[in-house]
Amino acid sequence: MLPATAFLKFWGLSFFTLGVALVLLSVFYRLIDSDLGLHGLGKEAVIAVLASAVQGAGLWVTASIMPGGGLRSQIVPTILVGIIYYAAHVEKDWDGYEMTGILSFQMVVWSVGFFMLGGEFKIAAVVLVSFVGALIIIGNSAKGL
Question: Quick one: pLDDT at residue 89?
Answer without folding.
Answer: 79
